[in-house]
Amino acid sequence: MAELLFWPAFLAYGEAAFAYAGDARRPGSMGRLATWGVRVGWLVQTALLVAQAAGADAFPWDTWAGSLNLFVWLVVGAYLIWGCKPRFRLLGLVVMPLAALLLAISYLAGGVDGSGESGYSSLFLVAHVGLVLAGFAGLTLAAALAALYLWQERELKRRSSTVLRFRAPSLVTLESLFGRTIAYSLPVLTLGMAVGFARLRHDSQLDPLIVLTVLTWAVYGAFLVLRYGAGWHGRRAAYTTLAGFALVVAMQLSLHMGHFA
Predict the structure, then answer these.
(1) Angle, CA 174 vertex, CA 170 and CA 179 arms, to 5°
(2) Domain boundaries, the chain
């Protein structure tokens, strides 16, 4: 059942990515098709996750591939909060190709067939993995907003007519959004880390993911201090956001090396 639901979700995300690309060339009806692709794909992926949970004896996303499946759902869900508005369709051009690609990787790596068998308790995995991935999803969306900010700023400085074709948010709006997204996401990540560190007291094993997680937390913590304490704005804030996201990517690779093993 879960595998049957994968294909409609993947095709809907792929259709959204394709339609967003078409809308970028000629803004109009393709944007509405993209929006519906995102919504339908997310609902089908929700059904996929429910089917996985119903068919597993424990936490069904206990592997790297399974966690990647859940991560995609969280990223698209965060995007749906306001990202489907016409002004944010360029953001969809960043988010949806990534979502389709990661969902495909998850499927090829066995993320749809999660075993639900792990050396960790289900309660720990729900609290730790769920919160950490939710934090990462928010930080991923913040990185997409920062990338859109940098692109739009560059086009405006070049006095390019390209940016005028889109009903994109202002630079002030984009900067405010990626700052607030990080401010909301970092506490969620902190809670997930706290659950993990509470267990670490009874387990002396230290893997690269723990080091990368602490480093990521420090980068984004420094961002919030500099952004709201020292008044950092503009490109410096955007580049710091992208630097933190590079660590998020590194953590996903670290998960692949066997954090749940």
Answers:
(1) 150
(2) 1-117, 119-261
**Percent helix, strand, coil in the chain (nearest 5)?**
80, 0, 20
For residue 246, give the H/E element and its range: helix 234-256
Burial class (CB in 10 A: 0-12, 13-18, 19+), 213: buried
Say what the pLDDT of residue 96 is.
94
Q: Are 128 and 195 in contact (CB under 8 A)?
A: yes
Q: Which amino acid would we find at residue 133?
A: L
Q: Which residue do the tokens 């959004």 mark? A: 177
Q: Looking at residue 255, what is its pLDDT? A: 63
245: number of CA atoms within 13 Å, CB side?
A: 20
d(C-alpha 216, C-alpha 196), whole Å:
15
The pLDDT tens digits for 39-56 are 999 999 999 999 988 887
Instruction: Calculate helix-pair angle for 89-108, 2-25, nearest 10 degrees.
Output: 150
Tokens describing residue 227: 């952004």
User: Do residues 6 and 51 touch, judged by C-beta distance below 8 A?
Assistant: no
Architecture of domain 1-117: Up-down Bundle (1.20)
For 180, the token pair is 């607030």
pLDDT, tens digit (0-9, with 9 covering 90-100), for 95-146: 999 999 999 999 998 888 765 555 556 677 778 888 999 999 999 999 999 9
